């Protein structure tokens, strides 16, 4: 069988203007199994409120995902595991939404708080991404850059309807107005999509503190050229800060690689290497 290697890295930064970092990030790669995730939340709602909401979101998802790899999960078929992973992610997002709403009801100073969320989880070669708001996930491989999420924002709706170009949206004074978030209604409504990874790839997640300054072309250029790949997170943070750093800035990288099978024949001075498959993403499911 092919051997899967997953490595992750992440960073969050207060930026050049804000007095508090309302972003929160968690990332993890299991040392024994091909399992890893990155979670980024960008809070909103006034002093301490945004930071509280984003922390609740990332900690709730972290707790649920860290407890996923138990005996029942590991003993299931790959198809069952994929269903269980998606179900666990949905349940974790619902739980985070409930926890934020509870905190708002018991702390009046947090009445306006909420948070965006983007999370990418890889188990074996199965990738699932969930998001609310304008924090994004991208995938880069030798075919180029693919945006895996579509912003839940007013300017994205205007782009979709032809009222704005992407370039105009970048300069719009309503570019930070989002249409979905955690902690704003009784029912969370994330978009959840899944893919099967069949080749080496980089997954990049970020808050809008990155995409306010770096468009898709700039992101692709960094992912394609900056090495080691996991250190791209520092490049994204540094570039956003250098260009103004008006918002908090968070970025996470998940590096997925498939090592070809190597068959060693005893007493023969040669080895056989099975080449990697040349096909790409083969399945996408939408919630």
Main attributes of the structure:
alpha+beta; PPM-type-like_dom_sf; PP2C; 8 helices; 287 residues; 31% helix; 7-stranded antiparallel sheet; disordered C terminus; 5-stranded antiparallel sheet; Phosphatase 2c, domain 1; single chain; 14 strands
Describe the structure.
- This protein is of the alpha+beta class and 287 residues long.
- The chain has one domain: Phosphatase 2c, domain 1, CATH 3.60.40.10.
- It has eight helices and 14 strands.
- Strands 2, 3, 4, 5, 6, 9 and 14 form a seven-stranded antiparallel beta sheet that branches.
- α1 runs antiparallel to α3.
- The longest helix is centred in the first third of the chain and has 29 residues.
- The C terminus is likely disordered.
């Amino acid at each position: 069988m092919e051997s899967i290697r997953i490595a992750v890295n992440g960073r969050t930064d207060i930026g050049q203007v804000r007095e508090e970092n309302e972003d929160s990030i968690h990332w993890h790669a299991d040392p024994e199994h091909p399992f890893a995730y990155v979670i980024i939340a960008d809070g909103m709602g006034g002093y301490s409120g945004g930071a509280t909401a984003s922390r609740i979101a990332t900690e709730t998802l972290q707790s649920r995902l860290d407890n996923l790899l138990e005996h029942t999960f590991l003993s299931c078929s790959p198809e069952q595991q994929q269903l269980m992973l998606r179900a666990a992610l949905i349940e974790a997002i619902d739980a985070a939404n409930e926890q934020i709403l509870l905190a708002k009801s018991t702390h009046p100073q947090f009445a306006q708080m909420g948070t965006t969320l983007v999370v990418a989880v890889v188990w074996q070669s199965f990738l699932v991404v969930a998001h609310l708001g304008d924090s994004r996930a991208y995938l880069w491989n030798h075919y180029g850059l693919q945006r895996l999420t579509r912003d839940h924002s007013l300017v994205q709706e205007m782009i979709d309807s032809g009222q704005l170009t992407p370039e105009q949206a970048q300069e719009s004074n309503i570019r930070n107005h989002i249409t979905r978030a955690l902690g704003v209604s009784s029912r969370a409504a994330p978009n959840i999509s899944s893919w099967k990874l069949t080749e080496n790839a980089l997954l990049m997640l970020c808050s809008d503190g990155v995409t306010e300054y770096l468009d898709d072309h700039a992101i692709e250029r960094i992912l394609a050229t900056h090495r080691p790949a996991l250190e791209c997170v520092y490049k994204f943070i540094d570039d956003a800060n250098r260009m103004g750093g008006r918002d908090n800035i968070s970025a996470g990288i998940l590096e997925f690689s498939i090592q070809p099978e190597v068959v060693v024949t005893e007493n023969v001075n040669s080895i056989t290497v099975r080449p990697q498959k040349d096909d790409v993403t083969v399945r996408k499911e939408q919630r």
